[in-house]
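Our working data are protein records whose layout never changes between entries. An example says more than a description, so a record of this kind follows.
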Amino acid sequence: MPRYLARHLLFAACFIGFFTANSSAQVESKPLRIIAPFAAGGPTDVATRVIAQKLAEALSRPVIVENHPGGATMIATQLVANAAPDGNTILLTAPDFVINAFIQPKLFYDPLKDFAPITVVAKYHLVMTANAQFAPKTVQELIAYARANPGAVNYASAGVGSTAHLSGELLQMLAGVKLNHVPYKGLGPSMTDLIAGRVQLTFINWILVEQEVKQGRLRPIAVTGLKRMTLIPDTPTIAESGVPGFEIEPWIGFIAPKGTAAEIVSRLQQGFATAMGSPDLHKRLANLGAVLGASTPQEFSDYLSSEYDKWGKVARTANVKAE
């Protein structure tokens, strides 16, 4: 190779290396924006902000959580879909991200193709919770009551297509019973009616009903995961209570815009893995009943596919459509 050509190639390599390193430094010096599709103050928002604090330490860069609720989580999702794939903007996701594919009439994204999965950081159970005056105290008693009184059991959710809604639909499918779904515009109104006895059941995060249970207004019947919750170990799972195959574990994950470079996704995932390994983080989130960890991008991609299949079957069988 001629000397002048070798010098030019060496110069080009140095220039490219400098440019790449400098661009990466510029990206990672900017705040990382986590776009959250839920309102501030709820369990998912609280968990996200605690995780964000540890993520900032792991990445050595500021991390900001921005709440953009509404539109069945699609306002936030659209914002991230349109963001530059530079590692500065990511989306907080939950089962709604997949469920929307089956219930929204005009969805602008494909959950399996149009984003770059980073990691799942937590899975947790919902608790089937009843008004304290509701006669059935076990899943089998509930099934027997519902069969003897078709249409007499009302269960609440925060809206059509929510995990609480589809939990009830799955129970009906597997147990062969008929329940009445009563959708509300948010958790607050549904909780008010549950406590007042205007509806009998809901499926909800334990932290939201713990005090009402302690005060005797509500009663946990079963949990939706395959294992019992350490916070309420005497409360059985729905599966072990005679409904095999019932498993619902809502999750929290993070995704980046489509086209985000693999090395950027990897750095973000490594930051989450470091953050999720914090004993302090586990302690602070223990009351949410969450199982914490950090999956790889490929593991999250595979998990999204399995969630897509599961929720799709429930939504199609129950003919669930957004209002």
Notes: The domain at 31-122+249-318 is CATH 3.40.190.150 (D-Maltodextrin-Binding Protein; domain 2). Residues 3-29 form the longest helix (27 residues).
